[in-house]
Each structure stands twice: as C-alpha cells, then as structure tokens.
C-alpha cells in the first residue's frame, strides 16, 4: 500500500507538469482518506481489544480469588472436624464446585462471544477498506 501511495505521489508530481494529471491527485486523496479512516477504526479496535483483555484479566483474578476462598474453606473444615461426626464436606464441596463451574462457564462463553464479535467487526472493517 505504501509503495502504491509513493508511486501515485510520484505520478502526481509528474502530472502537475502535464495536462490531465488531476486524476492521480484525486486517487491519492481518496487513498489518504481511506488510510486515515482505517487507522482510526484500527485504533478503536485496539482500544476495544485492550478493554476486553483487561476485563478478561479481572475475571481470571476473580476466579482465582474464589478458588482460593474455596480452598481456605476446605482447609478449615478438614482442620476442625465436625462435633457431631457428620461428614457433609464432600456434598458441600460438590455443590460449591458445581456453582463455580457454572459461573466460570458463563463467563468464558460471554468472553468467547465478545471476542468472536470483535473478530467479525475487524474482518468487516478490513474487508471494507480493501474493496
């Protein structure tokens, strides 16, 4: 693309000296305008990607905190046996695990959907500018 723009600029310089050289100038302006639009759209996409990455990191941190809390709770239950001798820990762990797993699954599905949407938008932007 850069080589084409350089070539058109060279033609424009030659076209100024010859009659009918304005077509290259108009084409060069159009290319410059499209390039600026593309750069703007790519900057917006980069910003959206950065926000998505930040949200993903925050969500992973939240999952890590929840796992750590579950581990602490399990450790506490195993360190202090129940007074009545009832062994409810495996059931409680299974319930907590199912709950956390469902939340994680929902979060990952939402992130995957957002990333697919961003990919589609990026493909559309690139396709529009190359056509």
UniProtKB/TrEMBL annotation:
Source taxon at top rank: Bacteria
Gene3D superfamilies registered for this protein in UniProt: 1.20.58.130
Protein's UniProt name: Uncharacterized protein
Species, as recorded: Nonomuraea angiospora
């Amino acid at each position: 693309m850069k080589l084409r723009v350089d070539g058109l600029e060279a033609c424009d310089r030659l076209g100024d000296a010859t009659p009918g050289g304005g077509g290259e100038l108009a084409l060069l302006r159009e290319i410059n305008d499209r390039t600026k639009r593309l750069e703007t759209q790519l900057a917006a996409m980069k910003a959206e990607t950065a926000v998505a990455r930040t949200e993903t990191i925050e969500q992973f941190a939240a999952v890590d905190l929840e796992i750590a809390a579950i581990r602490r709770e399990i450790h506490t239950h195993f360190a202090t046996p129940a007074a009545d001798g009832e062994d409810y820990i495996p059931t409680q762990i299974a319930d907590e695990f199912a709950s956390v797993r469902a939340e994680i699954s929902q979060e990952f599905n939402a992130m995957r959907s957002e990333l697919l949407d961003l990919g589609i938008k990026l493909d559309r932007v690139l396709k529009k500018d190359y056509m």
